[in-house]
Design brief:
By secondary structure, the protein is an alpha/beta fold. It folds into 2 domains: 157 residues, Aspartate Aminotransferase, domain 1 (Alpha-Beta Complex), CATH 3.90.1150.10; 259 residues, Aspartate Aminotransferase, domain 2 (3-Layer(aba) Sandwich), CATH 3.40.640.10. Helix content is 38%, strand content 17%. The chain has 14 helices and 16 strands. It has a 7-stranded mixed β-sheet, sandwiched between helices. The chain has a 4-stranded mixed β-sheet with strand order 1-2-3-15. A 3-stranded antiparallel β-sheet has the order 13-14-16, covered by helices on one side. A hairpin with a 4-residue loop joins strand 2 and strand 3. Helix 3 packs antiparallel against helix 11, helix 4 packs parallel to helix 11 and helix 8 runs parallel beside helix 9. The chain starts with a helix and ends with a helix. The mean pLDDT is 96. Bound molecules: pyridoxal-5'-phosphate (PLP).
Length: 422
C-alpha cells in the first residue's frame, strides 16, 4: 500500500463509508477541466461534476484567479458586525439572475446548512407573528442534507434510521407524476386541516439523491399554488438544481409559482470552496424586523460570507452567464436527448429521463443503494476512465458544462458498452 493510502487508513474516516472491510480509495492527485488524475497518472472523466459542483470544469483559471486575488487582499473577517465588497458584489450578481421576488441573502457553509437556515427562518417567521406552527411538509424520498432539520425533511431512511426518533415533525406527499395531482391536492387538504404547517420544502423538478427522479412541472406548480393560497411558505431546495442543471439558471425559473425561500450551495462556487446561501423575499425578511432583538434571526456561522468564497461565487456567476457556458449547456441537453432516444428501448433499461444537463436511467430490477450491482457498475466505469456514482440500479451523469464533444462521446460510448455487456 502506498504511503498516502496507509496514512489514510490510519487516520481518516470517510463520509458515507463502511470501514469494517479495508477500503482503498483511488488517490487523486490533481484535476483539470473534466478530468481527475490519480497518483499513477490515470485519468477519469468526472461525469457527475464531483457531485454537481465543478460545473465549469476543475481548476477553472478564472475561479483560481479569483481565489488568488482575494486571498492576498482579505481572507476572512467576522460577518457579524462587518461587511465587505466581495459579499455585496456577489449579492448584486446573484440577485440579477435569481427569481425576481428574492431580495435578501443569508450566508452559511454548505447545502445542509442552507436548508437548516431555511427551516429555522420558516418556523421563526410564524413564531415572530405570534403563530405557533410546528410541522413541515416535504416530498417522499427527498434529500436535503445531513444536519437534523435537513435529515428530518429528507425521506431517504437509508441514511437516517438511527436518528429518526429525534426528528422534527414532517408530513410527506408523493412527487407529482402528471396523473396524481388531484390526489395530492386532496391529501394536502387533509394534512393542512390536521396540522399547523409552516413550510413546504421541495427539490424543484429533479430529486437528486433519490436517483434523479424527475417530476411533472405543472403538477408541482399546482401544489405550490395550493400551498401559497393557504399561507404556507415555499422553500425551494436548489442545492442540486441551481446554477443551470435543469436548463434554466434555476429550476424555479421554469415554474410560475415562485418560492419564498431558496437554498443554494454546490455549484454556487463552481466547486472551488464551500459555501451555502439561503435567500428570501422581502416579506419573509420583514417578519424579523422589530425593536425586540429576540425577533432577529440569531443564527450564524464563523465562516459566513467568507470573502474568498464570495469572490469565487461571483466569478462563477460570470461564467454561468457567459456565451460559452450557455452554448455548452444547450448542446449537452441536445446530446442527452439523442442518447435517451437511442437507449430507451434497450431491454435492460426500465426508464430513461433527462432534464438540462442531467441524464439518468434505471436498470431493470431493484437493487440496494450500496449493494453489489451498484459496485459492479461503478467499477466497470472507473476501469474505463469514467467516474460516476450509481445509486442502486440508477446510473446518472451530470457532466461539466465545458465538456468537449470527444469527452461526452467517450462517456456515451462507455454507457453503451456497459449496456451491451449486461
Ligand atoms: C438537494 C440537496 N439539498 C441539500 C444537500 C446537502 O448539501 P451538502 O452536502 O453540501 O450539505 C444536497 C446534497 O447532495 C442536495 O442534493
Amino acid at each position: 500500500m502506498d504511503e498516502i493510502s496507509a496514512t489514510d487508513q490510519k487516520y481518516l474516516w470517510h463520509p458515507l463509508t463502511q470501514h469494517y472491510h479495508v477500503v482503498q480509495h483511488p488517490v487523486i492527485a490533481k484535476a483539470q477541466g473534466v478530468y481527475l488524475y490519480d497518483v499513477q497518472g490515470k485519468r477519469y472523466i468526472d461525469a457527475i461534476s464531483s457531485w454537481y459542483t465543478c460545473v465549469y470544469g476543475h481548476c477553472h483559471p478564472r475561479l483560481a484567479q479569483a481565489v488568488r486575488v482575494q486571498a492576498e487582499t482579505l481572507d476572512q473577517v467576522v460577518f457579524t458586525g462587518f461587511t465587505h465588497e466581495p459579499a455585496t458584489q456577489l449579492a448584486t450578481a446573484l440577485f440579477s439572475i435569481l427569481p425576481p421576488n428574492q431580495r435578501k441573502a443569508f450566508f452559511s457553509d454548505n447545502g445542509s446548512t442552507a436548508v437548516e437556515v431555511a427551516l429555522k427562518m420558516s418556523l421563526q417567521y410564524f413564531y415572530n407573528q405570534g403563530e405557533s406552527r410546528d410541522t413541515l411538509l416535504a416530498f417522499e424520498n427527498g434529500f436535503h442534507g445531513d444536519t437534523f432539520g435537513a435529515m428530518s425533511t429528507s425521506g431517504l431512511s437509508v441514511y437516517n434510521g438511527p436518528f429518526e426518533r429525534f426528528f422534527l415533525k414532517v408530513e410527506r406527499i408523493p412527487i407529482p407524476t402528471g396523473e396524481n395531482t388531484a390526489a395530492i391536492l386532496a391529501t394536502l387538504e387533509r394534512l393542512i386541516a390536521r396540522n399547523r404547517i409552516a413550510a413546504f420544502i421541495y427539490e424543484p423538478l429533479v430529486q437528486g439523491a433519490a436517483g434523479m427522479q424527475m417530476m411533472d412541472a405543472k403538477g408541482l406548480d399546482a401544489i405550490l399554488r395550493f400551498l401559497r393560497e393557504r399561507d404556507i411558505l415555499l422553500v425551494a431546495d436548489e442545492v442540486m438544481t441551481g446554477f443551470g442543471k435543469t436548463g434554466a439558471h434555476f429550476a424555479s425559473d421554469s415554474i410560475p409559482t415562485q418560492p419564498d425561500i431558496i437554498c443554494l450551495a454546490k455549484a454556487l462556487t463552481g466547486g472551488m470552496v464551500p459555501m451555502g446561501l439561503t435567500t428570501c423575499t422581502e416579506a419573509v425578511y420583514a417578519a424579523f424586523l422589530s425593536e425586540n432583538p429576540a425577533k432577529g434571526f440569531f443564527h450564524g456561522h464563523t465562516y459566513s460570507a467568507n470573502p474568498i468564497a464570495c469572490a469565487v461565487a461571483r466569478a462563477a456567476i460570470e461564467l454561468l452567464k457567459s456565451r460559452e457556458v450557455e452554448a455548452g449547456r444547450a448542446w449537452i441537453e441536445r446530446q442527452h436527448s439523442r442518447l435517451a432516444a437511442e437507449i430507451q428501448t434497450h431491454p435492460k433499461i426500465a426508464g430513461v429521463r433527462h432534464s438540462g444537463v442531467t441524464l439518468a436511467f434505471d436498470l431493470r430490477g431493484d437493487a440496494p443503494r450500496y449493494g453489489r450491482l451498484r459496485n459492479a457498475i461503478y467499477n466497470y466505469f472507473m476501469a474505463r476512465g469514467v467516474y460516476l456514482r450509481p445509486l442502486g440500479h440508477t446510473v446518472y451523469i451530470l457532466p461539466p458544462y465545458t465538456i468537449s464533444e470527444a469527452e461526452l462521446t467517450r462517456i456515451y460510448r462507455v454507457i453503451k458498452g456497459f449496456l451491451s455487456s449486461l
